[in-house]
Every structure is written in structure tokens, then in C-alpha cells.
Amino acid sequence: GKLVYKGDRESSGKYAFSAYVDGDYQYCFSNTMSKLTRKVVMFNMDVGDPPKAESDIDKDHDKLAEQLQQLSSTLVSMKHDQEYMEVRDRTHGMINDSTNQRVVWWAFFEALVLLAMSLGQVYYLKRFFEVRRVV
Q1: Distances, alpha carbon 26 to alpha carbons 23, 45, 50, 80, 90, in Å
Q2: What are the start-end ranges of the H helices in the chain?
């Protein structure tokens, strides 16, 4: 088949494609850059009506139909953007939760190390100043 679009190392983006030839089209995704990390791929596909010839549309309703079509496409675009923002919000929320959990565990580890060091110093100083009697 013919390659229509190729993107490398993209974290997000949009691509629009108008098919001028009838047929089957395929989406192909690859994870050859980094196989160690998990990837999430999300996409929306809108299939619109083919453009109509001038003779098919009544001239009086042409402007109204054009405005309705523009409003409809804008609403669909806003819906897709909202869904995308919800996914990003969920993703960033999971990242924040993971980071907060790591910070809590690190603080707990630091507290244990601090407590162990304090007890070690008390034990060392107690032994250092201990008076030993030789009989």
C-alpha cells in the first residue's frame, strides 16, 4: 500500500486525511523506538459525507446548510478535544499519584535511616564515655 503519513517520536498530535479514492485504508502503529515503556495510542476517526455537487443543493438553503455543517463539525471537534483532555487528565492524575506514593515511601525510608543513625550514635557515644575498670 501507499504510505500516507508517518510520524516518529510523537507524544501527541492531529492529522487529517481526505480520501479521494474509494477503498480500504489501514492504520499501522509501531513501538520500535522504545519497547520497554508502555504506550497508549488513542485516535478518533471521523467519516464525513462526500461533497455534494452544486445542483444537488437548493440555492436558498445553501448558506444555512453550510453554517449547520460548520457548526456540526465544530461540535464534533470540541467533543473529541474534550475526550482527549479527559484522557490526559486521567494520565497525569495517575502520574501524580505514583509520584506522591514514591515521595511518601522515600520519606518513610529517610525517617527509618535517621532513627537508625540516631540510635547508633547514642550507642557509640555511650560506649565511648563508658568507664571501664580493669581489675
Answers
A1: 10, 12, 20, 21, 28
A2: 62-128
Q: What is the spatial distance between Cα 13 and Cα 87, in angstroms, rounded to a whole number? A: 14
Of 94, 96, 72, 5, the closest CA to residue 43 belongs to 5
Q: Per-residue pLDDT tens for 73-89? A: 899 889 988 988 998 89
| CA geometry: angle 28, 30, 31, nearest 5 deg | 160
In total, the chain counts a number of residues equal to 135
Which pLDDT value is given to residue 51?
64
| pLDDT, greater one: 57 or 59 | 59
DSSP for 24-45, written as a single string: ---------S-SSS--------
Confidence at residue 54, expressed as pLDDT on a 0 to 100 scale: 60
Instruction: Give CB contacts under 8 A, 24+ apart, made by 83-89.
Output: 83/44, 84/42, 87/40, 87/42
Q: What's the mean pLDDT when you consider all of the chain?
A: 84
Give phi and psi for 70, each to the nearest 5: -65, -40
